[in-house]
Amino acid sequence: MSEHSDAGPSDRQQTNRHVDPNSQSLVWRIDDVLDDTTGGDWIAEALPRFDYTVGSLVPPIYTLYSRVLHPAARIDPDTGEQVPVRWAEVAAHTGGVIHQTVEWGSLLQAGIHNGVGDGRNTVWDQEPDEGDMPEEQFAALAEVLVEHTSTPDECWFGFWEGRAGQALHLPFPGPLLRLPHRDNFLVHGTVRDAVRTLEGWGPNL
Question: What's the pTM value of the predicted model, to 2 decimals?
């Protein structure tokens, strides 16, 4: 995606590549993907391998980490709309316990063990999505994070090329932040741009 590459007439224009911090658009454009991925080098240096642990997804350099549990959903019988369901609501029904390493399946098994069922079609109808969060959660997280940085207008987001990259049709190998089994496209914006998607996917980093 070099601005100086030999682009054909059908290629997208490489103009206005940087994100306007005041933009109201909730979708990143293909032109927003950065050629320069050095903004993520510190992450690449801190993730030497991929072993299905927290420390292989985010840099294992912090004293504390927080989990954000993706909500389940209940379908409103009158409107057909999806209503978010917190894990705590499911736990209250099943007798499960919310703790640092709680798993969705363990909450459901608690209900079966306690003879009250897993709550399906009563408390919840759809299981939590894996690998993505609702826009409302991204927005709430951004509002917290923006209070803990002196540079809220300087934020980089990574989108795993295995999902968002499939529809971008960028020249191989493309401008990727190279991580073990998790290469990412990078875009630059503000902390509150966490709600923006790339080809329908929320950010992974």
Answer: 0.75
